[in-house]
Amino acid sequence: MTLAAVADRAGEPGTEKVSRVRAAVQSSTGKGKAMKVVTAEQAAAAETPATRSGVRIGAWGRALLRVVVPPVAGLALLIGLWHLATLNGGGIPSPGKTWDAAVVIFSDPFYREGPNDQGIGWNVLASLQRVAIGFGFAALVGIPAGFMLGRFAVLSQMMNPIISLLRPVSPLAWLPIGLLVFQRADPAATWTIFICSIWPMIMNTAQGVTRIPQDYLNVARVLKLSEWKVFTKILFPAVLPYMLTGIRLSIGTAWLVIVAAEMLTGGVGIGFWVWDEWNNLKVEHIIIAIFVIGTVGLILEQALMLVARRFSYENR
Amino acid sequence: MSKKIVQIEDVGQTFSTKNGPFTALRGINLDIHEGESVSLIGHSGCGKSTLLNLISGLTTPTSGVMLCDGREIAGPGPERAVVFQNHSLLPWLTCFDNVYLAVDRVFGAKEGKAKLKKRTEDALALVGLSHAETKFPHEISGGMKQRVGIARALSMEPRILLMDEPFGALDALTRAMLQDELVKILAATKATMVMVTHDVDEAVLLSDRVVMLTNGPAATIGEILEVKLERPRDRLALAEQPEFARYRAAVLDFLYKKQLKHAA
């Protein structure tokens, strides 16, 4: 008997079950929308129209307050303390003075007046470009290397002592090597990013490969899947969340390191800009740079968190 | 008697552990015939899953001979489909794609896309999950996941269906419902099945033979009970039949009188 014929028969009983499941399915597909509708209906049933809108705005307002107020209060506290600390003058500029300088800087972020005098936008973009190139190469090398280390225990035993030895080294220690090999400052900075980005990607990818549940591999064995299918259908998706964690850690470190590397190598870039403004004794610009560096780092981190959440299957 | 699908001759399994070799199974002799449903039952740790893994080929025995269709079992293969205890669906694939992966592997070489799609749909319809094709495993209940696992196994049209405590992780009501469904599916497909279980009712309800294992270490087959209840079997009707109670009592007697003594 074919499966199709059997299916017709086996499908017969349990219409009740099917409808129950269908109801469950519907509620889960329209999650957000459906739930809102239900609450609105309940509210309508329970209360008169006059109080309803008031209650809803009140609830919304309270939720908004709970989300927005604490961070704003924290920021206000920071600026307040900063203001108090700079009341009596001194080297650190006050919040007001910094704000005025920021308005000037951000009113024209993309000007160019010679190689050493460019807008903050160009500087940030130059740093991001270096990070992207160094990080890209690190991903190209690190992720396949991680897969290899995770898959072959011998390789992992060979490489682990080397990785353990090199990983704690400050990436800046590699800068002179980069300068020696590439003879120019720019690739040397990129090289530094490469070195600091590669370790988390190797380690996390390798860990992801070794942590693939045996069940999934058993499925592959029972089905006798081809190596390519094992990789695309099981290995890669299973390792992806670990890989993304590695990428996130790498980007974080890379963004930390680029500022220091650029201070040493010069050229265009946010790190160089900080050093340049220190030489010009424009401390308010340095503070602005700190905020800019922090903001860009935060955006990079959050963007990768979003991507990671999209591909995380464990917490669902 | 119908054809033997699996022959197990004097099979033993010894694992090497830190404290020296550990004999899990010894002297297992068992034939499984076409269209037959066999349960392996025993106390936990007695090696029932080890025996099932040997049949599936996920592990190979340290002694003895295992044959499937007259050929030695050297490794796993789709003709011996496994339903795993914890469903083992791939979380990044939809229910459809989970089943399709298996269908494509077995029939992809000789059949077109449309035919493969039809096979997948039929397998899901067989377990009553046509409406959940596009769902991901995390979006459906535990019972539904296990049904997709069964659909995946059946979709390969295996020679023999191997189930490792397929309903162990489910609540009692869902388990009963799935058992009833499995009874229907087995009757309809005439599939051969070996199931590991620790549930006496489940063993008697679903099997033609209940293979009872002695306690480990070095477990072996203690008794084999032939269940000669009429099929199709109905859970409610059986509950009142004295024969059903007798079979049940026989298994319980083995598990709790003959084997419990050795347990301590």
UniProtKB/TrEMBL annotation, chain A:
<feature type="transmembrane region" description="Helical">
    <location>
        <begin position="253"/>
        <end position="274"/>
    </location>
</feature>
<dbReference type="InterPro" id="IPR000515">
    <property type="entry name" value="MetI-like"/>
</dbReference>
<keyword id="KW-0813">Transport</keyword>
<keyword id="KW-0406">Ion transport</keyword>
<keyword id="KW-1003">Cell membrane</keyword>
<comment type="similarity">
    <text>Belongs to the binding-protein-dependent transport system permease family.</text>
</comment>
<keyword id="KW-0472">Membrane</keyword>
<keyword id="KW-0997">Cell inner membrane</keyword>
<feature type="domain" description="ABC transmembrane type-1">
    <location>
        <begin position="124"/>
        <end position="308"/>
    </location>
</feature>
<feature type="transmembrane region" description="Helical">
    <location>
        <begin position="63"/>
        <end position="85"/>
    </location>
</feature>
<feature type="transmembrane region" description="Helical">
    <location>
        <begin position="286"/>
        <end position="308"/>
    </location>
</feature>
<dbReference type="InterPro" id="IPR035906">
    <property type="entry name" value="MetI-like_sf"/>
</dbReference>
<keyword id="KW-0812">Transmembrane</keyword>
<dbReference type="InterPro" id="IPR005889">
    <property type="entry name" value="NtrB"/>
</dbReference>
<dbReference type="Pfam" id="PF00528">
    <property type="entry name" value="BPD_transp_1"/>
</dbReference>
<protein>
    <submittedName>
        <fullName>Nitrate ABC transporter permease</fullName>
    </submittedName>
</protein>
<keyword id="KW-1133">Transmembrane helix</keyword>
<feature type="transmembrane region" description="Helical">
    <location>
        <begin position="131"/>
        <end position="150"/>
    </location>
</feature>
UniProtKB/TrEMBL annotation, chain B:
<keyword id="KW-0067">ATP-binding</keyword>
<comment type="similarity">
    <text>Belongs to the ABC transporter superfamily.</text>
</comment>
<keyword id="KW-0547">Nucleotide-binding</keyword>
<dbReference type="InterPro" id="IPR005890">
    <property type="entry name" value="NO3_transporter_ATP-bd-like"/>
</dbReference>
<feature type="domain" description="ABC transporter">
    <location>
        <begin position="6"/>
        <end position="240"/>
    </location>
</feature>
<dbReference type="InterPro" id="IPR017871">
    <property type="entry name" value="ABC_transporter-like_CS"/>
</dbReference>
<dbReference type="InterPro" id="IPR003439">
    <property type="entry name" value="ABC_transporter-like_ATP-bd"/>
</dbReference>
<dbReference type="InterPro" id="IPR003593">
    <property type="entry name" value="AAA+_ATPase"/>
</dbReference>
<keyword id="KW-0813">Transport</keyword>
<protein>
    <submittedName>
        <fullName>ATP-binding cassette domain-containing protein</fullName>
    </submittedName>
</protein>
<dbReference type="InterPro" id="IPR027417">
    <property type="entry name" value="P-loop_NTPase"/>
</dbReference>
<keyword id="KW-1003">Cell membrane</keyword>
<dbReference type="GO" id="GO:0005524">
    <property type="term" value="F:ATP binding"/>
</dbReference>
<dbReference type="Pfam" id="PF00005">
    <property type="entry name" value="ABC_tran"/>
</dbReference>
<dbReference type="InterPro" id="IPR050166">
    <property type="entry name" value="ABC_transporter_ATP-bind"/>
</dbReference>
<keyword id="KW-0472">Membrane</keyword>
